[in-house]
Amino acid sequence: MSSASDEPQGQLVTIVEDDAAIAEGLALNLRLQGFRTEEVGDGETARTRIEEGRPDLVLLDISLPKQSGIWVLERLREAANHVPVIVLSARQDEFDKVAALRLGADDYVTKPFALAELLARVAALLRRARLHLPAQGATADAPGSDARKSDILFGDVVINLDTRTVVRAGQPVKLTHASSSCWSFLGEAAAASTPARNWCARYGG
After folding, report:
1. What are phi and psi for residue 138, nearest 5 degrees?
2. 36: which strand partners?
3. 109 closest CA partner among 151, 167, 69
4. What is the three-class DSSP state of 16?
5. Phi and psi at residue 153, in whole multiples of 5°?
6. pLDDT averaged over the chain?
């Protein structure tokens, strides 16, 4: 495990990857973008470092020594740690992707990946987190949290159920009345795990 970069400024990205060449390459390019970085090579250490270091974002490989990335993600979410997580995996199995997303991963990137695209995903996810998520560790009753209770987040899309507005990648999306209702229902369905049959019953699909 390498220590965090000495740069005092910039958001901290923890890279959980057992391939040293990939981890070092990611760290170098993130630092060139102004981020601080920390590299961790196994699942057990990653869980501890993420809980103690409170990074702004985690790049998390699935196949790790000691404990898998899925295990790390599950432990974090069980502890109500909602740090943004982008899962990196050489596996293209749909089961792994679905499992990671259901456990609370914010994005999933399959190796080999285009570096420019990954950096763009990191920037977009951090931008969304700054705009729409309460500070890590805040509770539902904490000051300033009420305004976010009606927000539904998935991918880079944020739906506000109260105002029936949609923001994608930090930019407002213009909606017609009908599409506003559809987006609102999709948000409610996502929040309550509404079965697809309810969509059909409501919209005649």
Report:
1. -70, 145
2. 12
3. 69
4. strand
5. -115, 135
6. 75
